[in-house]
Amino acid sequence: MAVSPKAQGKGVGLLLAQSAIKWAADKGASKIYLESNTKLKPAIKLYEKLGFKEITGISSSYDRVDIQMLLNINF
Fold first, then answer.
1. Which residue, of 36, 44, 54, 71, has the fewest CB within 10 Å?
2. Which helix H or strand E contains 72, and what residues bound it?
3. pTM for the full predicted model
4. Are residues 36 and 44 in contact, defined by beta-carbon separation less than 8 angstroms?
5. Is 73 in contact with 28 (CB distance < 8 Å)?
6. Quick one: average pLDDT of 22-47?
7. Are 68 and 56 in contact (CB under 8 A)?
């Protein structure tokens, strides 16, 4: 997920993420897993605000991934 630089800092990322979480929950998902990079500090803060927790132990095929996070959906 990415937000245009012109739209960053205006809550667009939060709305997108909340919408994606609701969509997943509506489809019956109980968890959402994501991979990112800690250089993307605003994104990591957003994920934490949404309730994602850092996890370890899952291999990734992406070289730039240095953080993995999981959200347990409790709707």
1. 54
2. strand 67-72
3. 0.88
4. yes
5. no
6. 96
7. yes
Residues 6 or more apart in contact with residue 32 via CB below 8 angstroms: 20, 21, 24, 52, 70, 71, 73
> Do residues 44 and 53 touch, judged by C-beta distance below 8 A?
no
CA angle, 34 as apex, 31 and 38 as ends, to 5°?
140
Spell 7-27 as b/e; 16+ CB within 10 A means b: eeeeeebeeebeeebeebeee
What does the block give as tokens for 55?
A: 């996890």
Residue type, 60: S
- The tokens for 34 are 């994501």
Q: Which residues contact 25 (CB under 8 A, 6 or more apart)?
A: 73, 75
State the pLDDT confidence band at 15, using cuts at 50, 70 and 90. very high
